[in-house]
Design a protein that fits this description.
Largest sheet of chain B: 8 strands, mixed
Structural class of chain B: alpha/beta
Number of strands of chain A: 2
Largest sheet of chain A: 2 strands, antiparallel
CATH class of chain A: Mainly Alpha
Largest interface: A-B, 51 and 49 residues
Oligomer: heterodimer
CATH superfamily of the largest domain in chain B: Response regulator
CATH architecture of chain A: Orthogonal Bundle
Mean pLDDT of chain A: 87
Low-confidence stretches of chain B: 19-65
Strand content of chain A: under 5%
Radius of gyration of chain B: 22 Å
Number of strands of chain B: 12
């Protein structure tokens, strides 16, 4: 069972990264971004297209991350321009339209054929309890933990972080105080897109990597973000790793193996119901 | 605020419009012009001689060889979608192109390729267009995830028959009106398990299958058939969904003590499974379906630490020196069709179709009803079609179900290329 659990870290790291991006955008841009993995997949497919075209591995990665960030940043600009006065629900719904649009655009550009992604660190690995944990997986987990820690520090201990928190809580007041809210919003979307692009790049080599599948990493990312109550980066990372481990363990359990892809949905449902357990169900509901 | 709402409405409309335009085929099931050789080949088949022609479906074509009866042949394919199969119909189109340019041919074939994008609704629309508007007399060379299950009954209602270039789901092998030229996933699975256990000598075999959403019953029946032949059973049989990470499956196979794994997916899953296997340092042999048997897979996997094999439903196409493949290789290269198993299936299906059509006694004055009647008689009474690329003779005949090809060969990746490891076909009917 330990080997089963450890084999889930490869997915868990990707889920944690997506979850961090989701929480970042929710906390600072006030939006639950359904399209974050679509932007990430866009960047990832740009990366693999460049790599297949002859560009070196790491330049391709940099290019892919830039494309994912730029795509996300562009949508952030649209969001700041059109939906700055809207509530979180309206903005989140707008991201659904973004996801559909970019999925269609991506199918036009990249097609819907799966692609073969290169492993970033080749066969480098370490062995834990008889299970080989690839350097790619260690990097994904380390990146998620590092980003989560960095964000906690920045948001809690720096002037920039305080301004950004103020912007997310009171956007109008922040703007009146001279905080460049539109610029900060775009920056949040840029960073979110860049983080979300690393997730599919790291996860794709050991799975059938078509655009739709990589875009659906957001489901597990949302589940991870929910476990962190859309507030805690640390719990989100733990949640993402936990979901990956749970899916891997489910492969060993014949009763649930065929349904393991529904685990993030069940988790979301369970957490939502648990969070509402103290509510009174009266006629208003 | 009002202008913002208008802008939101415009954005939403743009999103819907873009989504509508992004599908691989139009609403009436016609294939969109694409870069695939399938459509290009479909375009050229109407003029013959490899020339670029009008869009697929245009029947206003000159016969380059005088007045021969013109016959419309249709094909519903998954050219786009989650599991695309463009080569089969492209190869069939190349065969029909060449036939049309041959002055000794008895008929002129107009071959119409439709794309169903693996969508049942589009597949249904495409079939109805071919039957009702394009007046096809039979179907040939198709490779689709949904054509058989969706359109099999429709073909039967209209007295039409299909020589499938690649049969995928069970419906292709249990229909009176459909007879795939390929071995298929079920006989192929039985043959592959037989190869793994009896030729490679493995007793502990794990099986991981790509979950297409279809019921696993036919797969379980194929496994049972193997068990009946060999007296052996699998250690484990698991399904994986698109996007699943293979690492947990690899570690499961290692922990279960499997010395061989049959991975039932496609070319990209074969590459990803190899990556996961290499990453874990697993040492089991790996056997794949014929869909992994492509030059791209061999090049991507390179020199694997694990012995990696694949099923070949026909004479292995990588055995370039094989005299059985000479004509096929030349034709596919001239038509820019990739050399894959699907292309072999399309090629053979088209040749079998030509044999059927030439034996039908079609004449120039035949109307549609007469043509369809003659073709039906020719299909049901056809002589077995034999070809050195086939391990079993192909015959349609009048039977409730058809799975004529019961033969497989096997290939192994060595230094980035496939090498044939079985000199003779494994023919399942000889083993039972």
């Amino acid at each position: 069972m330990i080997s089963a659990a450890l084999s889930g870290l490869s997915s868990g790291g990707a889920y944690a990264l997506v979850g961090v991006a989701v929480v970042l955008m929710y906390r600072l841009a006030g939006v639950m971004n359904i399209a974050v993995s679509v932007f990430g997949a866009f960047g990832a497919f740009s990366m693999v297209s460049a790599f297949d075209g002859g560009l070196g591995l790491w330049p391709s990665v940099v290019l892919g991350v830039c494309v994912g960030a730029a795509t996300s940043g562009l949508m952030g600009l649209v969001m700041a321009w059109l939906f700055s006065d809207s509530d979180a629900i309206t903005r989140s719904v707008a991201t659904i339209a973004m996801a559909i649009t970019f999925l269609s655009v991506a199918f036009r550009i990249f097609g819907d054929t799966p692609r073969s992604f290169p492993a970033l660190f080749g066969d480098s690995a370490l062995t834990v309890s008889g299970v080989v944990v690839k350097a790619t997986n260690v990097f994904a987990i380390g990146l998620a933990v590092l980003l989560a820690g960095l964000l906690v520090l920045v948001l809690g201990r720096t002037r920039l972080g305080v301004r950004m928190v103020a912007m997310s809580n009171r956007p109008v007041s922040a703007e009146l105080l001279g905080i460049p809210t539109r610029r900060y919003t775009v920056a949040v979307w840029l960073v979110g897109g860049a983080v979300a692009t690393m997730a599919p790049i790291l996860a794709a080599p050991t799975r059938q990597a078509d655009f739709t599948s990589l875009s659906l990493l957001v489901v597990a990312g949302l589940a991870a973000a929910l476990l962190g109550a859309f507030q805690s980066f640390g719990l989100t990372v733990v949640g993402g790793l936990g979901i990956g481990v749970l899916e891997a363990v489910a492969v060993r359990w014949d009763l649930v193996s065929s349904y393991r892809s529904t685990l993030p949905f069940l988790l979301i449902l369970g957490v939502l119901m648990w969070s509402q357990r103290g509510e009174v169900w009266d006629e208003s509901r | 605020m009002r202008s913002t709402r208008r802008l939101i409405a415009v954005l939403a409309a743009l999103a819907v419009l873009t989504a509508a335009c992004s599908s691989g085929s139009t609403d009436d099931g016609e294939a969109e012009p694409t870069e695939t050789s399938a459509v290009d080949a479909g375009e050229t088949s109407e003029e013959g001689g490899g020339d670029q022609g009008d869009a697929a479906g245009d029947s206003n074509q000159e016969s380059p060889v005088g007045s021969r009866p013109q016959v419309m042949i249709g094909s519903v394919n998954s050219l786009t979608g989650p599991v695309p199969f463009p080569e089969a119909s492209a190869a069939a189109a190349a065969v029909f192109d060449r036939y049309n340019a041959n002055p000794e041919g008895l008929i002129t074939i107009e071959y119409i390729i439709e794309d169903d994008a693996a969508d049942p609704a589009l597949a249904s629309q495409a079939a109805r267009k071919l039957v009702s508007e394009d007046n096809v007399v039979m179907m040939a060379g198709a490779a689709s995830l949904v054509d058989c299950v969706v359109n099999g009954p429709y073909y039967a209602e209209n007295g039409l028959y299909a020589v499938q270039g690649t049969g995928v789901d069970e419906s292709c092998f249990v229909s009176r009106n459909i007879a795939p030229i390929n071995t298929g996933p079920y006989a192929g699975l039985t043959a592959s398990l037989y190869f793994t256990s009896e030729v490679l000598g493995h007793d502990a075999i794990c099986y991981f299958q790509f979950d297409t959403g279809l019921p696993p019953d036919p797969l379980e029946a194929a496994i049972a058939r193997w068990s009946d032949i060999t007296g052996k059973s699998l250690v484990t049989f698991d399904l994986y969904t698109p996007g699943d990470d293979f690492t947990p499956f690899v570690t499961k196979a290692m922990d279960e003590g499997c010395t061989a794994v049959f991975e039932g997916g496609l070319d990209f899953t074969a590459i990803a499974f190899d990556e996961a296997t290499q990453g874990q340092g697993a040492t089991f042999d790996i056997v794949h379906f014929t869909s992994a048997y492509s030059t791209a897979v061999a090049e991507a996997i390179g020199s694997p630490d694990n012995n990696t094999y694949a099923n070949s439903e026909f004479e292995p196409f990588t055995d370039l020196d094989s005299p059985a493949l000479a004509d096929w290789i030349e034709l596919m290269n001239s038509a820019d069709v990739p050399l894959t198993s699907f292309a072999e299936g399309g090629y053979l299906a088209a040749l079998a179709t030509i044999q059927i059509l030439e034996s039908a006694g079609l004449s120039e004055g035949d109307d549609l009803a007469a043509q369809r009647s003659k073709v039906e008689a020719a299909v049901l009474g056809m002589e077995p079609f034999e070809h050195p690329m086939l391990g079993s003779p192909y015959v349609f005949g009048d039977a409730p179900a058809h799975s004529p090809n019961q033969a497989s060969k096997f290939v192994q990746i060595v230094d980035g290329a496939w090498q044939t490891v079985t000199d003779d076909f494994i023919v399942l009917t000889d083993l039972e």
